[in-house]
Structure formats: structure tokens, C-alpha cells
Amino acid sequence: MYLAQEIINLEKVDKSFSGIPVIDNLSFTVRRGEILGFLGPNGAGKTTTIRLLNGVITPDTGRLTVAGFDPVTAGDEVRKRCGVLTESAALYGPMTARENLLFFAELYAVANPARRVEELLDVCGLLPHADKKVAVFSTGMKKRLGIAKALLHQPEILFLDEPTTGLDPEGARALLDYIKELNQRFAVTIVLATHLLPQVEALCHRFIFIDRGRLLAEGTFAELADKYLTTLSLQVETDLTITGTEFRGFLLEKSTPGFLQFKLERKEQIPLLLKELLATGPVYSAKIIGRDLETLYFRIKEEKA
């Protein structure tokens, strides 16, 4: 559960570099306490948007507010309330994990730096590795340390820019589980920018899709799926054999040994179809296919083209 109060707001923001538009009339909001999936292909403008929100660069036109402050005129106040994890994480390899965090804690003027560093090493699961040089860390450990660094000053908002890049599936899953735990434990608002859609489908409360700096769509998965995935496919495991393209009024998309796949207009048809199938023979399992975040993204992109 998360609160609906807006903590980030963009209104008609534009940004160009050397005359080339990178952000184009972009407007969206982020709600306090949510994990927002900020999604789009490489080059969509995700990193540029994060830099705008942190006051690192200024917009050409439009208005931004972050935690009640304008990043253009109150960048220091914004950065006090935000933590950022970039792809590189900007850590020092010859230094240990503890030394890295102590260095940045002093830089950020963190109160009780030694205690805060110990807390974060523990929270991030790095306490056993605290005195190892970062140069020998795995990519996953570096990502965790980068998040610890971003949390040093207890920010309200955490920006994660492609956090799973370079991780194997197991490492990516572990990191995403950790991100979920941070959100639940500390109620920190998280903006997670990525192009790896399957990884974040179950993690985020809401999603924003952008491409070429433009907003394509925003909402929860259920809201977006109901709007853009107007039909669904149901795969049924069964011994039944059906000839033709229809079964008692239901469209048969595909038939393979042991499986039947039906195209339905709405999910309310599922129990009706299963009732008809069960009256004819055994059904061992049924699952909806093609109703996932990646399919949703491409459907939205097709409609917005």
C-alpha cells in the first residue's frame, strides 16, 4: 500500500541538446511511497529525466517539482532529499566498502557517519564484506553498495538508473527483491528506470512508458492492460482434441498435442470456457499468456506510432 500524495511532478518539460529534442513535452507525476517503473528503450530519455529531476541540468521549458522544491532554483534542497544510483555507481575500487561509505558520508555531511555506515552495511547485506576492496566485488555487490551510498543521507526519493545492468538473472532477482524490501521497510519512493521490462513487472506499483522523450502511457499494470490489451489468450492443458477454429462459440487460436489455445474478448469468459471444456473432458491447467509488461509496451507503442 502506498500514499497517493504526489512527491514528483513534471509539467510540459522540454530539453534539447545541440538542437536535438531529447525530452518532448513530458508530463507525469510520482506518488509518495510508490515504486514507479520508468520504462523505455535505450535513448528514450530516462537518464536525462533523472538528471533534470535532480537539478543536474535545467529544462528548456516546463516546470518540475521534487519533494516540494524546484530543481532549477533549489537544487541543493532537492539533492538533500534524493539518492541516485547510476549504472557506474561512482565507487572507488582501491577502497573498501566501509571506506567508500565513510568517504561519501563525510562528503554529504551525514550525522554520526560511522553509525550510519554500519547500519547500511548491515541493511545491504555487506557487513561480512565491509573491509574488502570494492575492486574485488561482484557486479551485484557493487550495485548493493551503490544503493547504500545513495541511502547515506536518508533520502525520501531513490532514483535507480538501470540497476540490473550487468547482472545475471539470479543477481538481478536478488537486487530487485532488495529494492522491494527497501520500499517496504523505509517507505522510500523509488523511481526505477529500465529497459528490461520482464524484470520489474511484479515489482512496481505503477508504470510510465516513454519513447524519444515523449510520454506514451502511465498507470498500473491492470489499468494499462485493460485499456490496451483488449483481448487475451488462454492456454489450456488437456487431452481433448478439437478440429476447426471454434469450440462452442470460443475462438481456437492454436492446437498442439496436449494443449489448446483460445482467444477471448474478456477475462470474464474464462470460467465459461473452462466449464464447457470440463463438460467434455479433463483439464489439467489453464493460464493466460501474452498479458505481460513487454507485450503491453509493444501494443502501446503500436497504438501511439
List the helices and strands and how they pair.
Layout: E1 6-17, E2 20-31, E3 35-39, H1 46-53, E4 61-66, H2 75-80, E5 82-85, H3 97-107, H4 113-123, H5 139-150, E6 157-161, H6 169-186, E7 189-194, H7 197-200, E8 206-211, E9 214-219, H8 221-228, E10 232-238, E11 246-247, E12 250-256, E13 259-264, H9 269-278, E14 283-289, H10 293-304
Parallel strand pairs: 3-7, 3-8, 5-6, 6-7
Antiparallel strand pairs: 1-2, 1-4, 8-9, 10-13, 10-14, 11-12, 12-13
Helix pairs in contact: 3-4, 8-10
Describe this structure in words.
The structure is a single chain. The strands form 3 sheets. Strands 5-6-7-3-8-9 form a 6-stranded mixed beta sheet, sandwiched between helices. The protein has helices at 46-53, 75-80, 97-107, 113-123, 139-150, 169-186, 197-200, 221-228, 269-278, 293-304; strands at residues 6-17, 20-31, 35-39, 61-66, 82-85, 157-161, 189-194, 206-211, 214-219, 232-238, 246-247, 250-256, 259-264, 283-289. The chain contains 10 helices and 14 strands. The chain has 305 residues and is of the alpha/beta class. Helix content is 33%, strand content 30%. GO terms for molecular function: ATP binding; ATP hydrolysis activity. Residues 8-237 form the ABC transporter domain.
